[in-house]
Amino acid sequence: MTVDREEAGALLNAVEGIEGRVRQLLLYAHVSDYLFLWGTIWFVGFIGDYLLKDRAALLWLALQGIGLIGTVLIVARHRRNAGTQNWAMVARAGISVIAVIGFGTLWLSLFHVGWREEVTFWPTFLSFLLFLVGLWAGRTLALAAVAIFAISLLGYFVATGPYLLLWMAVAGGGSMLAGGVWLRR
Fold it and tell me: pLDDT of 107-129, one tens digit each?
């Protein structure tokens, strides 16, 4: 069997397309791990915030620590599965989580926002960052981020009183978990 130049070019283009799609699916699978981790943290955190009003700050501090450790472990596992032990990448993941939490906390404290704005800030801020990643990584990720952002912002306007915490548990945490499932499909 002989393959002429046009057929060879078409086959190479097909292989290139498949390679790009596989790379995107692997990236989505990796991102979904973080959505599962942080979606669970948000769900537990906002429910805990609603139920344990007096100890909510300690709960969130513990959950952020779990999220930091979980993020570093996920990065380490992804590096190991890729056949590389790039510890600088693992360290950067931990530093990134600390930087994002620190940046958000700094601006929330400088602006002296109310509790409703603070509750709404984190899901919208983090979904904005996820959207930026999605612009480079793929449309599905960007759409998932827009959905999380919109549902979280809607809660600010429709959920009254402490029910905003329950809204964010389901809408913020639940949307992240649903986004993780969607990216895995």
Answer: 888 988 999 999 999 999 989 98
